[in-house]
Amino acid sequence: MSSGMLVVRRGPFSARFGVRGLLLAGCTWLGAVLVALWATAVGEYPMPLSTVLDTLAGNGTLITYDVVVNHRIPRALTGVLVGAAFGVAGGVLQRLAQNPLVSPDVIGINAGASAGAVLMIIGFGATAVWVTGGALVGAGVAAVAVYAVAYRNGFSGYRLVLVGIGVAAILSAAATFLLSRADINAAYQAAVWLVGSLSGRSWPDVVPVAAGLCLLLPPMLALTRRLAVLELGDDLARALSPRVGRARVGLLAGAVGLPALATASAGPVGFVALVAPQIVRRVLRERSPGLLACAGTGAFVVVTADLVARTAFAPRELPVGVLTALVGAPVLIALLVRGNRIGASG
């Protein structure tokens, strides 16, 4: 270990990790797990944490098993995984575009996933599997549209944001049109989902985002070194590594797929992808946040926001997307003001 870096070598393979980034990742992931565990103990049927642990160890009653295993654990686990997926996607997109304003919800990827999922819910009365497929297709269409319009001999962060906002507006209008044409029950189901909520999440909702993280996160971590080269700009990146374009495509595919799967599981939980990398950047005082730290921070933000949304206004319950929007919108405004003041991307 030297200069704050930890080098791991196994045969022909080696990897470098920032020690401070690893510590932050460990702290945020530990915090997310503890908050998730706490969340399983509070609610309309409160129980001591020891009872939760006994139930998880197989020593609970039928009632505590049903409450903890069938209801609260899937909700908390969905929150952790959804937050991690949004955090990683936001970290990758902000580093690729070199702009702190770029995140899946700002540039239309979440809107595309939402439009695709709403089409499956309202148009076909689809099950969870088809809703996930619709979200993936919608996110992919949005990403291709933004990429095709915004790319002009390279990426400009602000051009990407402006094009993304336009594409997001079009797709949001399409989702609203579908809602206006639906019957009242389907419209209500889709409208609640569009806010971004963890209420009623069950084990089938855990599967898409868990599978996405297992499949997409390892290759994205492996491409982190290429991500550092891409941050130097297109011309210099191509000069240093002729095959860097493949790394960009791989990272973009992951940054589109993860929020699409997260949106399919919990709806478009807004601003998490925007805020999580910014928290990491400011805590570490580094311009390039590590993906593990972004994932842990996103997981901690979502599971904490959901716990507050459940308990702060009891007996009423707010969707978690409302609370993250209340916190994230001022952050977005602050970033816009700061970028305008210094005339740079922040």
Describe, in plain words, how this protein is organized in 3D.
By secondary structure, this protein is mainly alpha-helical. It contains 14 helices and two strands, in the order E-E-H-H-H-H-H-H-H-H-H-H-H-H-H-H. It has helices spanning 19-39, 49-56, 62-97, 109-124, 128-150, 157-181, 184-195, 203-222, 224-230, 234-240, 244-266, 272-284, 291-311, 320-342, and strands at residues 5-10, 13-18. A two-stranded antiparallel sheet has the order 1-2. The longest helix is centred in the N-terminal third of the chain and has 36 residues, at 62-97. The two termini are 31 Å apart. The mean pLDDT is 82.
Q: What are the defining features of this structure?
A:
about 350 residues; mainly alpha; two-stranded antiparallel sheet; about 5% strand
